[in-house]
Amino acid sequence: MARRTAPATGETSREPARWEERSVSRVVNAGRERVLARSRKLVRAAQEILAAAGVEGLTVRSVLDRTRLSRRAFYERFHGIDDLLLAVFEQTFRDGATALRAQLASIDDPLERLRSVIETMLLGPGAATSIRYAVVMSREHLRLAESRPDDLERALEPLTTVIAEQLAAGMERGVVRQADPHQLATLVQTLVAATMHASLLSRAAAPETRAEDSAAALWEFCLRAVRADPTSR
User: Residue 99: in which H helix or E strand, if any?
Assistant: First the structure.
């Protein structure tokens, strides 16, 4: 009777079995979700602290006290407070872009959609807490635009993309002049941000200031800048 050959041990070259791939995938995915959950917890804590105490209250210690995470957990994800602030900006604008797309879904006219985006950006903060948070973010936006311009631009990309989508749709319909949609969106977003900074800071100093007036003037300016020449259609 032929003897059976015992299976080789210590093999390293064979392809993993499907069950092995599945087990590795489960472990990796579970680990990834744990990392992301803690990262999101840190960002949410930073948002809450900024709204309640301003940037002066945002320290590594205050974030760790609120999240009950370790200093190691913080520094595995962020080099420091500015990195955390950039994450707050990106998350804020990602959430804002999602809300804007839902808001625009029922509007057919690309120019009206663009108008809705601009007005929402300027008039969105209504409650005192929201205005306080927006003022803090506005000031930090100006600071990071100088110290971390490339990182800030990437953090603001979700909102720039929403603006570019409306401009591209307008170009397809012939109501927006032909140009690079993203480049034009960056110009519009920069103008809106500058107006928003001025409006928020003036509202913080004088709450009776009418943001609606700024929104109307800004929309008229943007409309003239992006609208197609009727004779070129």
Answer: helix 81-104
Average confidence (pLDDT) per 10 residues, the chain, 233 residues: 53 73 80 87 95 93 96 93 95 92 95 94 69 85 93 93 96 96 95 83 56 82 89 54
44/64 Cα distance (integer angstroms):
12
The answer to the question of residue 197 being in a domain is yes
Q: How many domains does the chain have?
A: 2
Say which CATH number the domain at 37 has: 1.10.10
Beta carbons of 38 and 69 less than 8 angstroms apart: yes
Other Cβ atoms closer than 10 A to 121: 22
Q: Residues 174, 105: one domain?
A: yes
Confidence at residue 133, expressed as pLDDT on a 0 to 100 scale: 84
Q: Give bridge partners of residue 227 from the DSSP assignment.
A: 176
Please state, in angstroms and rounded to a whole number, the distance separating the CA atoms of residues 46 and 83: 11
* 189, two tokens: 């977003």
- In 3D space, the residue among 176, 181, 179 whose CA is nearest the CA of residue 226 turns out to be 176
Query: Which residue segment(s) compose the domain that 227 sits in?
Result: 82-232
Contact 159, 185 (CB under 8 A): no
